[in-house]
Amino acid sequence: MGTGTSSRLVTDDTPAMVTTEHLQRYLSTLVDPRVRRDHGRYAEHFVAYSGATDAAGILEYLDALRKAGYRPGTIRQVYKILRRMFRVNDIPWPLGPHAIPDVPETEEQRPALAPEVIRAMIARAKQPGYPRLWAVYLALATVYGCRRVEMAEATPDDVNPKDGVIFIHTHKHGRQRYHLIPEPILPILARGRTLLRPRSPSRLNQIWRKIEASVGFPHWPRVGWHSVRRIVDRELLDAGLPESQVAWFLRWRGVQSSMAHRYRASTVIGWGDRQETVMPTLDRETDVAVFARHPFVRAWAE
Questions:
Q1: What is the CA radius of gyration of the chain?
Q2: Cα(131)–Cα(39) distance, integer angstroms
């Protein structure tokens, strides 16, 4: 983590600390309620910790996060959140561009889980007596490459067995969208959807450990739900799918669509109780192409 300071030095007009009023002004600029909640809790924590507006105070806070076990990527995100909160409130940001926390290459290159381990987990999930909730989360991770936070926030309303679609609330500024539900996991999601409710990331970690244990796989450091997402990405690329198609399917940040395209994804209301979820053609075609070569969709079908 660098210690460079900005040319915009603290002046006599700079407030001594960030206040709850500054916090609320910052939160009011966050339109997406999920972003407001996720970013807001870090901003609120900083205000409660010290709310310092000088370089030493900010660096002390970031160092406290590091000592508390926060990952480098999270600390970097917190840095950006605080910097934006300062700018929204016209408070000079006292740190220069080189002060942003680094993310080690080992952090970016987290392990992927071997395909044979994934297949063993899927085979175990199809056996009698397997917990339905575990099977639902395993299906979401292995088919759609869902992030832990995306699964932690899934609700019954996101799964529409009648129309065969599921809505995934993407994080990390990716594109949230409807996905088709492939036939092999439709019964699993249909039966288990009522068990979905907001859960803490730590609870998802506990479930992951139990899924590992159910197949006798020892827990490795830094291996978790995201390790499944990584192998899904690799397997789809190795199956010959275009990178752009894989990025679209996995809802990567930077993959955008036109407003006309997004508007086509809607629930159409008709006479009586008729409702139908309509997916954009590109989304539907992407899912069909991906599922045709998706190795773990085949594993669920076997």
A1: 22
A2: 33
Residue among 92, 112, 3, 4 at smallest CA distance from 52: 92
Other beta carbons less than 10 A from residue 198's beta carbon: 9
Residue among 178, 154, 143 nearest 277 (CA): 178
Q: What is the pLDDT of residues 169-204, one digit of tens each?
A: 876 556 788 999 999 999 999 999 999 998 888 899
Domain ranges of the chain: 20-106, 115-301
Instruction: Please determine whether the domains at 20-106 and 115-301 fall in the same fold group of CATH.
Output: no
- Matching residue, tokens 């020892």: 218
Spatial separation of the C-alpha atoms in residues 31 and 20, rounded to whole Å: 19
Q: d(Cα 283, Cα 74) in Å, to the nearest integer?
A: 31
Domain 115-301 has CATH 1.10.443.10: yes
- The C-alpha atoms of residue 68 and residue 61 are separated, in whole angstroms, by 11
Query: Is residue 154 within 8 Å of residue 108, measured between CB atoms?
Result: no
Element (H, E) at 177: strand 177-180
- For the segment(s) 20-106, the CATH number from 1.10.10, 2.60.40, 2.60.120, 1.10.150 is 1.10.150
* H or E element in which residue 293 lies: helix 281-293
Q: Residue written as tokens 């006798």?
A: 216
Please tell me the distance from the alpha carbon of residue 290 to that of residue 284, in angstroms, as a whole number. Answer: 10
Give the C-alpha separation, 103 to 76, whole Å: 7
CA-to-CA distance for 167 and 270, rounded, in angstroms? 21
- Which region among 59-63, 98-102, 252-256 has the lowest average model confidence (pLDDT)? 252-256
Q: Which helix (H) or strand (E) element contains residue 165? A: strand 165-168
Angle at 169 between CA 23 and CA 82, to 5 degrees: 25
Give the pTM. Answer: 0.66
